[in-house]
Amino acid sequence: LPQFFCSLIYCLIHVSQDSPLVLQSDRNVTVNARNHMGQLTGQLTVGADAVEAQCKRFEVRASEGGKVLFSADEDEIVIGADRLKVTGTEGAVFGHSVETPHIRAEPSQDLKLESPTRSLVMEAPRGVQVNAAAGDLKATCRKELHLQSTEGEVSSTNTIRLGNLPVGSFSSSSSSSSSPSSSAPRQTIYELCVCPNGKLYLSPAGAGSTCQSSSNICLWS
User: Fold this and answer.
1) Distance between CA atoms of residues 169 and 189, nearest Å
2) For residue 111, which of 138, 142, 146 has the smallest C-alpha distance?
3) Is 41 helix (H, G, I), strand (E, B) or coil?
4) What angle do CA 64, 70, 72 make, to 5 degrees?
5) Which long-range contacts (CB under 8 A, 24 or more apart) does 34-37 make?
6) Which of 29, 48, 101, 113 is deepest in the core (most CB within 10 A)?
7) Contact of 218 with 200, CB cutoff 8 Å
8) Smallest Cα–Cα separation from 56: which of 35, 81, 38?
């Protein structure tokens, strides 16, 4: 193999057909590109620990059609492949915000959005839609679940069901109490009532529904 101890300047280097071109060094292999003034405009360095490229824009194109699969410059990094697949067990980690028009899981896989130690925030100026077209949508939390609208309302186009609500019975203070000084029993269970405009309120539980006797609350809303 030929060896060069100084610089080699040539317009074209090619090898015979079906033979590879090998550039080999005990240290780094560096390819430089310069303009007509001799200024360095691009550099590719293959080292023992890394491959480094220094240029204004770095591109990786498909062999057929020349589609840009990956590009990087000072302003942004673009991945042009039809699918980006991250196979690491820890997934993808983003230090700041993530902006995307669509998030979905692979077929037959669950989609999970989780923040183990902090809150999970989804924001959009024209609304955020969470849709389960063929199954249930479940929201669980350890403490409290808040549904709040600062300027509008929280509404439903179908049935809202609250399961596992306790059924209570209320004994009035005039029931079998022999001591006149005995106090009325403390009310601990309430009935959940709804106003015509959708507002919910609590009414003391009784043998039957007590929502009607407390319906004057709806006048305040």
Assistant:
1) 8
2) 138
3) strand
4) 140
5) none
6) 29
7) no
8) 35
Place of tokens 């990094």: 77
Measured in whole angstroms, the distance separating CA 182 from the mean position of its chain's CA atoms is: 58
Residue 61: other Cβ atoms inside 10 A: 13
Q: Which residue has the tokens 């591109």?
A: 59
The size of the chain, in residues, is 221
Its pTM stands at 0.49
CB 47, CB 41: distance < 8 Å: no
For 145, half-sphere exposure in the C-beta direction (CA atoms, 13 angstrom radius) is 5
Whose CA is closest to 3, among 33, 30, 25?
A: 25
Residues paired with 201 in a beta bridge:
193
Helices (H) and strands (E) in the chain, counts: 0, 8
Q: pLDDT tens digits for the chain (221 residues)?
A: 777 777 777 888 888 888 888 888 888 899 989 899 989 999 999 998 999 999 999 999 998 888 999 999 999 999 998 888 888 888 888 888 888 888 888 888 888 888 888 888 888 888 888 877 777 877 887 887 777 777 777 777 677 777 776 666 655 554 444 455 555 566 678 888 888 877 788 888 877 888 888 788 888 75
CA dihedral 159, 160, 166, 171 (to 10 degrees): -80
DSSP state, residue 194: E
What is the rounded distance in angstroms from the CA atom of residue 147 to the CA atom of residue 142? 15
